[in-house]
Design goal:
Largest sheet: 8 strands, parallel, barrel
Strand order of the largest sheet: 1-2-3-6-7-8-9-10
CATH architecture: Alpha-Beta Barrel
CATH superfamily: Aldolase class I
Number of domains: 1
CATH class: Alpha Beta
Radius of gyration: 19 Å
CATH topology: TIM Barrel
Order of helices and strands: HEHHEHHEEEHEHEHEHEHEHHH
């Protein structure tokens, strides 16, 4: 393990005003979004779409890392340049999704555990040769009656820790993603309780596996109310609860925390991140973004599967990247949206 390389890579991923673009949707997920817009669900269209996301050279000013899917890291842009090489050209660290999805947790109805550890060491070595310098593994925690169970928390924390150790062994920075889903009617207080529990459990297991905290990035959910909560917490409440939870669970050595958007609207995710960075607290970690839909959805709609729309759609995602880059510095305002 080259710890200095890991630290340098992690620092580049969460550099001031830069976040992570999650463009690693699996075939079923990407195709489902295409189908809603009437876009053909072909490999060629997925290639064109991801070419569009990285077309603007300025993306490197606001994006420090981009998570690719297995198909994409093996593809080239429409100009014939490997995607990993294109990312490096514009100053973005190439990354790769390595988990194989959340499956039903045996004897625990309604709960899941993420799989993909078998053969991971060899896959990581191959991805390193293909240009990846960080990886991502997502665990899914559901809030419901009597869940999550301790068994679910421990199973997912252990898997995340073993994945992270294998990454660092290969000089790949692990993004550790324990996502507490927004689905449900739970309050922000319940969200805090579960988020605190899984993050505490994850870092205990990371320590047991010998993972170097300074060579990883945490990708957590924000502490928000459930989608169906009767009284959803406002932006300031979310910011304060999220930062309080991080202070209670995340070691000081972790260089950066890149939040997932978790189904929030574009501007909602940006506003929450901005509010955290405006709290005026002296935080030990960079607070930034690792968004998928909250960065890409408007651009996908602008492109709509039509090659003639690539340039316009590329400007749309550049705008969202710029807005979130500002939020990562606490300098975002809704007026910036209106001006654009």
């Amino acid at each position: 393990m080259n710890l200095q390389q890991l630290k340098d890579t992690a620092a580049a991923m969460v550099a001031p005003g830069r976040g992570i673009l999650a463009m690693d949707e699996s075939h079923p997920t990407c195709n489902k979004r295409f189908e809603k817009l009437g876009i053909p669900t072909t490999e060629e269209k997925r290639q064109e779409y991801r070419h569009m996301l990285l077309k603007e050279n300025e993306m490197g000013q606001f994006i420090g890392g981009a998570i690719l899917f297995d198909e994409t890291i093996r593809q080239q842009t429409l100009d014939g340049q490997p995607f990993a090489e294109r990312l490096q050209q514009i100053g973005i660290v190439p990354g790769i999704k390595v988990d194989q999805g959340a499956k039903e947790l045996a004897l625990h109805p309604g709960e899941k555990v993420t799989e993909g550890l078998d053969g991971l060491r060899d896959r990581l070595k191959e991805y390193y040769e293909l240009g990846a310098r960080f990886a991502k593994w997502r665990a899914v925690i559901t809030i419901g009656p009597d869940i999550p169970s301790q068994a679910c928390l421990v199973a997912n924390a252990h898997a995340l820790a073993r994945y992270a150790a294998l990454c660092q062994e290969t000089d790949i920075v692990p993004i550790v993603e324990p996502e507490v889903l927004m689905d449900g009617s739970h309050t922000i207080e319940r969200s805090y309780e579960v988020t605190h529990a899984i993050q505490k459990c994850v870092f205990e297991h990371l320590k047991e596996q010998g993972v170097a905290w300074e060579g990883m990035v945490l990708k957590p959910n924000m502490v928000v109310s459930g989608y169906d909560c009767a009284e959803r917490a406002d932006v300031q409440q979310v910011a304060e609860a999220t930062v309080r939870c991080l202070r209670a669970t995340v070691p000081l050595e972790v260089p950066g925390i890149a939040f997932l958007s978790g189904g929030q609207t574009d501007e909602e995710a940006t506003s929450h991140l901005n509010a955290m960075n405006q709290l005026g607290q002296n935080l030990p970690w960079a607070l930034t973004f690792s968004y998928g839909r909250a960065l890409q959805q408007a651009a996908m709609q602008a492109w709509n599967g039509d090659s003639a729309n690539i340039d316009r759609a590329a400007r749309v995602i550049l705008h969202r990247a710029r807005m979130n880059g500002a939020a990562a510095k606490g300098r975002y305002s809704t007026e910036m949206e209106q001006a654009a």
